[in-house]
Amino acid sequence: MHALPKLGVGLAYQAPLNPLFDIASPPIDYVEVVPDIFWTDRGPAVEPRYVEDAKGLGTVSSLARRWPLVAHGIGLSIGSADGFETDHLGQVERWWQRHRFPWHSDHLAFHLAEHQGVRANAGITLPLARDRESIDLLVPRIREVMRRVPAPFLLENNVYYFDIPDAEMDEATFLDTLCRESGCGLLLDLHNLHTNACNHGFDPFEVLRHLDMRHVGEIHVAGGMELDGFYLDAHSDVIPEAVWHLLEWTLPRCRNIGGVTFEIFGSWVESVGLAAIQADLERLQALWSRCQGEATAQPAQREVGT
Amino acid sequence: MSLQGFQSMLFRLIAEPEFRDGIRAQKPFPPRVELSTREMRRLRAIADDRGLDINRTLHKGFRLGKLRALLPMTCQLLGSRRLSRELSRFWLERPPSSFSFLPEALDFCEFLKRRRLRMRYLHDVLAFERALLRLEAAGADGHPEAVAFEHDPAPVLAALAAGGRPRHVPRQRVDAVATRGQDGHIQWRMAPH
């Protein structure tokens, strides 16, 4: 059984952020990496299926010498009804044996589905219906992940530009039920929640007020942009004030949390600027320290993702 | 089984605009696909949702981004308009099947070869990037990749790497062999014919 260590503020790795990682004391406490970008998936019919990127592994090792690494996968497609990517899980297991990340995560969504007779990849995370059927599909898979990778496992609430109507549960109930029945933790992506609230016209605090914060193991924050009347989870900017408000409300309530991670896509680093990114990281660290100071009087109530 | 059909239809709504149009026009779902009444109702509602346009844009952008990353010079040579036209044809026959998209990029190379487009330097640029991808896909077990260029590849590739287009490079047969070192670096040995 594993409780989440209190790491602090993390930065999701992107190569254009290297100048920030290279300064003497960047305002980060851990680095989040997407393992999938450091290997080539040659498909299920090829042996070995996964070929590691030697140069990329050098980068990961170099980061690991300075900070704890947390793995945030994009390839599990845990909600796919047509099958579970156990090969992918094996690859995550190999990465855990190598890097021993204190926890790992993936997305509460699916991107693989049968299309034109093959298993096709949408390249985007697609929403799952908030139904009992989805819970029943996910729980045994989550348990298999936790059995094979002996580190706490978190699932990230999804961003969705269309919702699946006639849901049996609201989002908070769905997330709580999934965490409670499977034993996984929640990677609460506040920018996803903000994006959904903007596009679907609901109050994000209403979701947060009903969410069991004991399940939250990590928080993601990011910035986005508008396109065709929609607000996108584009990871293209600094953290908007609306997301800061969500974070300031949420973080003190997450007694079991291990860290808050800032995400920005590499292609936006230059236009946003390293100074602005660094300023957000410093603000995150100040908020984290304040919340941890407030939390010392109250011990964690249960372990997350165990 | 029914959830599997639902997800498959949801994928089609994103990947195939004509299919979405049909569902919006109350055409029936394919008879071989098992769907509950609720799933059919949900799919028709989603087909009408403007949010699906965003998913379509992101889906296409993701596939295009992967191909641009894996075949940068081929995409540069084709130019935006021709690339878009060829991709539309290619995507009709080839669904995406892997997150790394390396197999898809290799298939796009084969597709372009089959198309026999009359475009100067395309044979050379395609052969060059295809060899790199094949070595990447093979990993440590890869065999050397032989390429017979029709022009001196150095000025052709240099122009594309600089964001331009090659001009007035004379025809010249150049045989080359690419190998992948243990550190993952690719080495080319060239010999003018």
Please explain how this structure is put together:
The complex is a heterodimer of chains A (306) and B (193). By secondary structure, chain A is of the alpha/beta class. Chain A contains 10 helices and 14 strands. Chain A has helices at residues 18-22, 54-66, 86-99, 132-148, 171-182, 190-200, 204-210, 241-250, 269-272, 274-295; strands at residues 8-12, 30-33, 39-41, 50-52, 69-72, 104-107, 110-115, 118-126, 153-156, 185-189, 216-221, 225-227, 230-232, 259-262. In chain A, helix 4 (132-148) packs across helix 5 (171-182). The model of chain A has no long low-confidence stretch (mean pLDDT 93). With 193 residues, chain B is α+β, with helices and mostly antiparallel strands. In chain B, 60% of the residues lie in helices and 12% in strands. In chain B, a hairpin with a 5-residue loop joins strand 2 and strand 3. The longest helix of chain B has 22 residues, at 72-93. The radius of gyration of chain B is 21 Å and the shape is elongated. The chains are: A alpha/beta (306), B alpha+beta (193). Chains A and B meet through strand 3, strand 7 and strand 8 of A and helix 1, helix 3 and helix 4 of B.
